[in-house]
Structures are given as C-alpha cells and as structure tokens.
Specification:
homotetramer, alpha+beta, 9-stranded antiparallel beta sheet, 24% helix, elongated
Chain lengths: 260, 260, 260, 260
C-alpha cells in the first residue's frame, strides 16, 4: 500500500450533496445497435457521473474507467442499464448518469442513380439510473431547407441551405435511431446524400424547390409525427438553418410532453 | 412593394406553438457594465428568440436584427429589459428571449510584483421577458486546482492543472460579474494571472500546494458562498478540471434554489 | 530576489535552435484601423513567438505579456512593427513573430431598402520581424454561392449555400481589409447581409440565380483580381462551400506569387 | 440522360490552374494498421483533392465519394497509394491529395498496478500522388509537463499541466504511429494514462516532479530522437502546454529536414 489515508472517503461536514461528479470527455471505441447490420463500430466521447452524498468528501475517479473497460468489446448501447448499475455499485452511489456522443453511419441510395454511399449522423444518448432507469436518445439530422418566402417573392430561384435538425426523445419503449432520422428527413425540403450523380442532383434540386419549408415548418412537421408516438414520453425538436443569404442562423425549437 | 403575399403572416392550422424561434449566432460589438471603469467594449455572439403562437405560420426574422441595430452604441447589458420589450413589440410576441456570450476583461495585479495585466473571462447572459423579466448571468472562471490525494500520497509534488469553474445565477437583484469571479477565485487552489514574474510564480506555486482542492471541494466551497445570497434565486456551479495526468477531465456540478 | 538561479538563461548543449517559442491563444481587446471611422474596438486572440538560439535553454514567457501590455489602448495593427521590435529587444531575439485573429465589423446597406446593419468578418494578421518586417493579412468572407450545374440541369431552382472565401495576402504596400472584402464579394453569386427586408430578399435571391458560380469559379475570379496588384507579393485564395445538398463541403484553393 | 451539357467539362479561358479542388470534411468509418492487433476500426474525417488544369472549368465532385466508397471495408491507410492513384484516374488529374484525421486507441498499462486501459491519440495522415507518392504522418500526444523554473524557485510543489505534443514526419520508409508516440512520451515529464489507481498516481506525481521540462526542453528532446532517423525526410515538433497558472498556453516548435 502506498498510503493509509483515503482522502476521498473521509467525512465531509459542508452538508452539500453534489448532483453529478465524475469524468468527462473520455473517448472510447464502442459498438452500437444497427437496424440493418445488427451492430456497427464507432468512436464515442463519454461522460460518466454519480451523485455524491453530502457526507463523503470525494468520489473515486478511476473506478469509472474501470467499469467502462469491463464493457469494452460489448454493445455498450444495448447494455446501458447494466453499465449504469455497475457504476452505481462500484461508486456506492444512489444515482449514476452517462452521456455518449458518436457518429453513426447509414448507407443511403441516391434517389435516381441508386448508387449507395455512407452518411454520418451525430447521435447522443443520455441515460440515468436512479431508482429507475431512464433513457433519452438524440440525433442531429442534416437536411436541405428551402425558403418559402424567397421562392414566393422572387421571379426565379429561392435561397436554400444546409440545416441541422436535432431531435431528442425520452423513451418508454425501444426506438431505432433510423426511425427518427427517416421521420426528420420526410419533413425536410429535401434529404441529404453523400453521393449524387447529375440525375440525382436534378432530382434533389427540383424536390427542394417543390417543398419549401420555413424553419418553423420543419419543427412543426416533426412535432406532428412525434406527438402521437406512445413510445415517447418527452421530446424536443430544434432546427438550425445555416442561411445562405446571412452569416447568422435561423432557429426554431419545440419541446413537448406526450400524453399517456 | 415586391409582393403582396406575406407567407409568414398566413394562418397555420397545425395547432403547434413554437417555444422559441428567431436568429442564432449573430456577432455584434457591444458595451457592457464594468465595475472599475463604468463600461467596456467587447464582442458578443447573440441569439434572439420569441414564442410563436400556433396560429401564425412564421416570424419576421429581419426584425430581430432591426431591434438589435437600435441598441448599437448603447450599453446593451444595462438595457436588456428595454431590448426584450422592443423585440416583443416588433414581433408581436408574448415572450422574448436573448442570450449573449462575450469575453470580459479585468485588470489583475500579480500577487507579489503587482504588475498589472488583463485576463479574459467568458461571460454569458440569458434574459427572458414573458409576463415578467428574468435574468440569468454566468461566467467561466479559469483557476488552478491541485489534487489533495496526489499531494497526500506522494513524497513530493502534486498534480495540478487549469480548471474552468462555471457559475450561473438567476438573480432578483443586481450582482457584478466581478463579485462572482472573486468569489470563485477565493475557492480555488490558486487564482490565475496573465503575467507572473519569478517572485509571483513562486507565490502561486506554493499557494496552490498549500490549498489542495478536489473538483468536489471547489463546487462545494462556491456553493457555500452562493447559498446565502438573497439576491440569487437559483444557481448552478460546475468545475471541469483538465487533469494533467489524464486526457479526460474531472467534473462536478451542484444546482440549487435559494430559500427566500 | 526570490531565487538566484535563472534556469531559462542557462546554457543549452543540445545544439538545437527553436524556430518559434512563446505564448499562444492570449485574448486581448485591441484597436484596429477602420477605413470608414478611422479605428474600431474589437477582441483578438494572439500568439507571440521568438526564435530561440541553440545556446539558450529557455525564453522568458512573462515578457511577451509585458510588451503586449505596453500596447494596450494603442492601435496594435498600425503599430505591429514597433510591437515586434520591442518583443525582439525584450526577449533578446533575432526574430519575432505574432499572429492575431479578430472579428471586424463593417456597416453594410441592404441592396434595395438600404437599411444599414453590421456584418462580422473574421480577420487574421501574421507579422514577422527578422532582418526585415513582413506582413500577411487575411480575411474570411462569407458569401452566397449558387451551383451552375444544378441550375443548368434542373427545370427550376438551383442549390445554393453559404460559403467562406479565405484570402491571405503578403503585402509590400498598405491594403485595406475592406478592399479585399469588396473584391471577394464581387466574385460571389451574391454577397451576404445581416438584415434583409422582403424587397432585399427578392433581390439577393434573383442575383444569386443570375450569377451561378462553382467553387472553382470563385477562386479563379478572386485570383484574376489579385494577380495584377503590385502591392501584393504572395497570395492564396480558398473557398469552402457548405453544400446544401451534402453534409461535406466543396473546396478549392489557389496559391500564387505575383511578378514584380 | 437528364441533360446534355456538362458544364464542369467545358473549356475555361481564365488560364488559372487550381492547386487543389475537391471535397472536405467527409466523415467515414475506416480501418487502420495497428502494431499490436494488426488492424483497428475508427472514424475519420477526410479531405480529398486534385489539381485542376487551367483549361477545365470544373471537377466532378461525386467521383471523389465514389472512389472512397470502393475502399470501404479495406485498410485505407495501407492502401493510400492505390486510393490516390484511383482518384487521379477517376478525375483525370495529374495530382491527387488526401488528408485524414482520426482517433487511434492504444491499450496502456498503469505504471504500478498494471491495470490496462485505452488512450485515444489524435492522428493525421497527409498523402499526395503527383509524379511520386509522398506520405506525411502526424500524431498529437497528450503528456504531463512540469515547469523546471517553478520547481527551482518554490519551497515545495511545482506547476504542471496537460500538454499536447504534435509530431509530423514526412517519411521515406514505414514507421509505426506507436513508435512516434513512445518516443514523445519518453521526452515528457511523465506520460498520461486513462486509468490510475492510488499507487500509480503516486508514481506519476513523483516521476513528473523528478523530470521537470520546459516547453523548449520537450521539443528539443523529441528533435534529438527524430534527427537521426533515416526513415524520416522532414519533421516538425510542436508542444503546446495548457499552463495551470495562466489561461493562455506556452508553445514551442522546431522544423527540420534530415540529412541523407
């Protein structure tokens, strides 16, 4: 033993419980569920926290990494409840929290040529295990938005741009990332692809022109599709449009709790 | 007139109120209150939003910038309630929101040589005007943290690092950014300076060694100083330590509502 | 005196000259030249370096900040040669270097309504003083680009997006940031504004549609305007288009040395 | 065929060759060489460019993604020359370029407890194929640096911090990323681990205290180890120290061409 005194375990008299304490911005290779090919390898950035009761001076930071190491080579997303339960035990805590951020790749086929290519979607998972387990999943979906006002008032053309739609759902039942992505893409002026040949480019240009959407329209259309989903307890929808005619962004947000 | 149809003002039948809609990431030169020299010029990044009732299809994005332009050369921080009131009127909205992020400079004197230099503190203000006006102010304070465990178990030395302490306070009464900064710095292993001569470097090295603080200690000490401040309705304290012995960070967070 | 030994000044036997050593990412309020209103206040992030000859073990980092402090409240851009000369003297170095990055604000008038608003341009200056003084100035100019191919192949519409054109010029003679910005904006499908009313939005939509530009066209048009400017010794032009139909970017770059 | 006119292939009369044109910031899952386990899966961000001769108006952006798609599931790093050769052919270009940035994970054992954990190293590869193939590999290595001056002048303690050492080598012969990492870590005050138990924390604290290094020392020590390596044609070494006593960073850089 290097030392007898364990400062972290000593008593604390300040009577202040710490809501969350732990490690932040750990990068780690993970395996996640994939609707098409069962699982996929990616790289995540993680935070792992516990609640620290007022009587303890400190937490044992190395144990978070030890627990994470136990889940190396496992499908971490599928095992999140086990992971958090083990964090609670290892840290002797009543509540454990984790959040993960990672790119997730989906093979898409160009709309006319049907040539396949991969597109990255930035996903995030936020899970907590207090008395019960709770899971929130999120995804940033890049889309094309085309301005209805610009189309309406102009003799030709319409400004359009890349937008990022962020959907976050707290769920009571399983839901695929792919479902959220498809739902969002169906509300866009047009969806985005990594690879477009000339015939595809004609298609997406005309499709966007035929489907003008304000930032307000996008979040409302997504809301309409989420508000009746019984698997979802709470959700938020944001759209940020990187306006081609400005250097600031247009933004809209709706947050809603679904009725049981 | 370029066109008769105002799409944004048309009726919307989807029955979805949008919580926040507007412009994001506008950069703008602003003037802010300064306890020492009355005011200081800096550069902010702003978001400005309103609530959009379900019956309206869109908001008029250009009006946000028009209102902002009216406050150019004014002390925007001092006039935030007026600014939001004008946003509400211009957009015919029941609720308006803004958030600003900007660096704020304070002249500090080195602890022994007393040579002055400027240090940047990243500040943020979040204000809303629904029926009432509400203001939250925040600041990221860079400090030195030195690990008590590392000091205790080692025959010499102790790992230390730069940390960022983030304090966010929702206030009922005026409070200076400088007050929050001083309060945080008094809870650190040592405060940070831009310019340190050799005598100063000896002082800060020894002071940090004499004041070891876990990430948990830092947020608890700051909490002790904020929890009895009658001007503060709600606050959060976070500390993120950029560990010199790891490439991930240690983190702790406390959120608390003050009793009236 | 706190200590007799000055480790930085001790001899080094490794025979390795250090190209650049100093301080990085200092934030500082600065004053810069402004063609319209003589000067403007902004906030910069600076790096300041010197060459360190092989015989010296270390440089004295605090002196960089001391010299910077001497130039507080001065027009740092106008005094860059003096600043670097003082760095050389303070550090007893043969070569000194600095780079500054800052937002610069220009009042623009909307094309039809003529309503004024401010637009931020991210600028950077890189200066060195070895035997001679050398200055490179750069600016990131946000513009609208509209794809000629998309316009050509589609029955209506054309994809367009925000692009950032970065111009960097090493100069022998004075040149205004404003000149570079105007030159770049004249090569775009359309320039960008912070505030556009409906009549302006019609104008910029139609103008962009009438001026389709590939990323290649943009850098070539800018190159044509820079290659005969006798004040410019060397330049580079980059354009990065944040494609509205992809989530990756289109990019082109030209670097050129002007003939004397 | 959607359209007869191929604008990109049309003649250009501006007589300006474009140094690099192509796609930027594509994210893609890749497989890379791993000294221990032969290969590892990770996620890269890529740029792919070609030179565009003055006579051609545009390049065909979709072909870059098509070529990348051909190398999906292959070890892209091992096949970089083939990849660039195929880019040249697909784009009918004389020169092709790519750069990749990705996290690379190495299992390290804590110095005393020997508990294994993974550490992420950010790597980058820059390859070009003009007449000949050329490869530059780079890695950002996080380390602990402890200030010799602070140790010398203080009665106890010494400020230390996380530093990032960036090494970039243009090579004539194969070199493992792992070799560069080990070489850099041997020049640090102490190397960094993801998981340290108490006995390990005592070890790294004391080791760093026993090995104080200025930012200048770090780049010189790395330079000494790289300058006699016959596999390396050109290299640069940078160290950026995130000073625990400042909020700016200390920085040093050496660039050198090795003798044949």
């Amino acid at each position: 033993m290097t030392n007898e005194i364990d400062l972290q375990s000593s008593n604390d008299t300040r009577k202040i419980t710490i809501d969350k304490v732990g490690v932040k911005n750990i990068r780690y290779p993970i395996i996640v569920d994939d609707r098409t090919s069962k699982s996929q390898s990616t790289v995540a950035e993680l935070d792992i926290f516990v609640e620290l009761l007022h009587k303890h001076r400190g937490t044992h930071m190395s144990r978070f990494i030890e627990v994470l190491t136990h889940f190396h080579k496992e499908n971490l997303i599928a095992k999140l409840p086990d992971f958090l339960m083990e964090v609670k035990q290892a840290l002797q805590a009543d509540s454990a929290y984790t959040s993960l951020r990672f790119p997730y790749f989906i093979e898409k086929h160009a709309p006319i040529s049907e040539i396949p290519s991969l597109l990255a979607y930035d996903c995030f998972f936020e899970a907590s295990y207090q008395e019960d387990y709770s899971l929130t999943i999120g995804v940033h979906v890049p889309i094309t938005s085309l301005c209805p006002c610009s189309k309406e008032i102009s003799d030709y053309g319409a400004h359009n741009q890349r937008s990022i739609v962020t959907v976050k759902v707290t769920i009571d039942d399983f839901i695929w990332i792919e479902e959220i992505i498809e739902l969002v893409e169906s509300c866009a002026s047009c969806e985005i692809y990594s690879l477009l040949k000339r015939s595809d480019e004609k298609y997406v240009t005309e499709k966007a022109f035929n489907n003008p959407r304000f930032v307000e329209d996008i979040v409302r259309e997504v809301t309409l599709r989420l508000k009746d989903d019984k698997r979802i307890r709470f959700f938020s929808v944001e759209s940020e449009n990187f306006e081609s005619i400005h250097s600031h962004n247009a933004y809209a947000c709706v947050k809603m709790r679904n009725k049981k």
